[in-house]
């Protein structure tokens, strides 16, 4: 699976993360790194998600930069030559996801240049980097989670202002209009991020609709079909050193190399 790794620079740590991390990174810039299959939607990021029960690490990539992601992802990146020296996994500090909530980060290419880290129930520790860039306009999971957080801010222990950015129209589709994911949640009567079966179906529909029938509404490639814009946006992000190619090994490769 070929993902785009997205580098979201930390602007201000949550108090809990600051205590644990700030003194351990040796002056490096720290980035939360998300794995995405939809670089063309990055204009519509409104926040970022982590799993509150997931263990993350801050890993030195070189003398100047450190990435925050799961150990599993850091190992993959090291094997893929993203670290100096190659293959080097250098964990500077470990931190649990709940401590990251409320951290403010840069959202590359987004119309909202800074966003907050929020909790999501369904983040898998075994996929991507364990950090998810949230695009509620085009991802049903992201949109439903954002709605849940707004409805129950106290329960989720967040400041409501962290979840205040509304979904931003990024892609137009003939069937679902300019906000595909919110339209799908309504059409499929999805009520909660716990409706995982319907959400998986909605995701499938949103992927297909966006990829085959979507047109860009914003950004440098406004007016182009998503099929053409996808690779171009990705290239632009990589040129700007805000993203990189990140491959996820298939299950069988993992078990054979383990
Ligand atoms: C931004 C984005 C915008 C995404 C969108 C999707 C959509 P897949 O297809 O199952 O491989 N993701 C990445 N890592 C995780 C994780 N550890 N746990 C849960 N979700 C994760 O899923 C890949 C997508 O799932 C990634 O692409 C990421 O969200 C999320 F408009 O990044 B995506 C219709 C989907 N739209």
Automatic annotation (TrEMBL):
Signal peptide: none annotated. It comes from the Eukaryota. Belongs to the class-I aminoacyl-tRNA synthetase family. This is leucine--tRNA ligase.
